[in-house]
Amino acid sequence: MKPDVLKQLKKYVYTTKPFNSEDEGFAIVVKKNFIAANRNMAHQVLNKGSKVHLRSVACPRAVTDVTVKAAQEIQNIIMMKPNDEEQFPYYPRESYGDYEGRKVISVGLSENKEIQFEEGVIEEYENGYWYAKLEYGSIGNGVFDENGGFSGIAVNFNESSKVAEIASKNVVLCLTGGPPGVS
Predict the structure, then answer these.
(1) Which domain of life is it from (predicted)?
(2) Which of 51, 61, 170, 176 lies in disulfide reach of 19, CB 3.0 to 4.6 Å?
(3) In CATH, what number does 103-173 get?
(4) What pTM, to 2 d.p., does this model score?
(5) Which residues pair with 67 in a beta bridge?
(6) Same fold, 8-85 and 103-173
């Protein structure tokens, strides 16, 4: 893993705390004005319109509030957008050329709120989902190519086979509501 890429990936991870809950989770910046998370654990109480408090893991003084724009149970993803047309100071470009055999980096938070990275390899693609072998996959982790391009979000993990199901960037980004300029 390239140290400069890992340093950049850390900037995309935020802790989440719904306004009316003590539960905490994490989310990954996927676009300059969108951040995605899974619907499990702390996020299962969230629906479209819910308010969430974010704190950057890389820079804990960086705090922002967002609103849930989409909450999809089938994809196990929620998409949130900063309030007042704010944008995230750091955001990934899209990964291009994802393919079977490509190395990927999974980024998320451990149970003790430390950023964790893991390398894996894409094994298969089917109906908008990548499948990658990861030793310690975690649902909700962002998945990026070796250069830091956004590839998707882990939405399921099989402990016995160590294979993560990853909603591709196309599945995730369709929850942003459409092309640039569309809210």
Answers:
(1) Eukaryota
(2) 51
(3) 2.40.10.10
(4) 0.90
(5) 51, 81
(6) yes
